[in-house]
Amino acid sequence: xxxxxxxxxxxxxxxxxxxxxxxxxxxxxxxxxxxxxxxxxxxxxxxxxxxxxxxxxxxxxxxxxxxxxxxxxxxxxxxxxxxxxxxxxxxxxxxxxxxxxxxxxxxxxxxxxxxxxxxxxxxxxxxxxxxxxxxxxxxxxxxxxxxxxxxxxxxxxxxxxxxxxxxxxxxxxxxxxxxxxxxxxxxxxxxxxxxxxxxxxxxxxxxxxxxxxxxxxxxxxxxxxxxxxxxxxxxxxxxxxxxxxxxxxxxxxxxxxxxxxxxxxxxxxxxxxxxxxxxxxxxxxxxxxxxxxxxxxxxxxxxxxxxxxxxxxxxxxxxxxxxxxxxxxxxxxxxxxxxxxxxxxxxxxxxxxxxxxxxxxxxxxxxxxxxxxxxxxxxxxxxxxxxxxxxxxxxxxxxxxxxxxxxxxxxxxxxxxxxxxxxxxxxxxxxxxxxxxxxxxxxxxxxxxxxxxxxxxxxxxxxxxxxxxxxxxxxxxxxxxxxxxxxxxxxxxxxxxxxx
Length: 500
Fold this sequence. Notes:
It comes from Pieris brassicae. Helices cover about 50% and strands about 10% of the residues.
């Protein structure tokens, strides 16, 4: 017994000594690190801050090249001083540094980004801290409670598979609509981005609401609730970009854009409730089903009606522009790489149940032209990053798009090569030769995209149907991308859709 006590004492002493050594090393490392205020970055102008850098002629005038310009001038860590209510931001353009923070955040990481929308929802809740506002806008314990409620339903593989057949019907209807809109030269009559938004809303609608919204009806009126919701979703991201990602005084005074945003958020809420109420009425007339046959909204309504309403609303908001722009980017990349498109068509026409090349094509599209350029966190503790001390509660932006098209991680990074997701590990192109945080289209950890499986199923289904029916070609210059809170594909749409 005495020898056992001695052994325990020795072990404890060793562990204490080891802890002291580690803590001493951390203190020594921190002592050598520079304060965050020393991080290089664009010099702010008096009063107006960083704004002049974004004006025509400024070094950040081209939004597509901002990460590249910052990296070349300042390196892998850059500071943007805040003004007019905008917080100071730290830009990280280094995969290992990004991993260091993302892997070490606590189990309730804070992801800022929609402060004005959060403000609207909390004001609508009369600022009741116990009332949820949704996954997009909640943080801390309120977010954890909400996510814990919806996770078992939205992440359940069997539940997602329930939508396979109806999403295939949506895809077939969209192909028919595209044929109807085609002109004699095989181009699409009208704005293809709007058409992709109609497909995306119809697709996410069957998942979020459990039924068809009829967005693809050729006689759909311009003032229909579906078209209004699409426009409102566009406007929400536009207003969030103006209020939350650019200097704005809305946190102090009611600016014109603030009132526009509140009206926009109110419209989105009312339109979502309109569709949710329709779905709820339809459930009342349906025959009873087993739990395995029930969809997402029906299951959530049985748990908490308020959570069900908010989750459906968030899905209708987050699932439209993201899916639509991913499809446009994938169409373009396949049109510019016809040999990849032909290889994909061969796989689809083989009717094989497994479609690895289809999945690889989508992954490669999200690498080359991701719909979201980065991610944002408010640090939950202090970090030592690239020789600088980053304090708690600092806003850090992770430049995922910059990393995903970097030659440091992906050989021939600007080229569209789906094979990199399929080749053997010994091949230099193999995706795992890159840092694991160089490709991160759906986020990381507990705050990763809850709709990932749904989005993948929608896109795989529609892309498969499109390539089965059309040879996609591109007749113009480079695709136009307008970076904002999302990367928007904008006109002209020089696509040609030839029958296969």
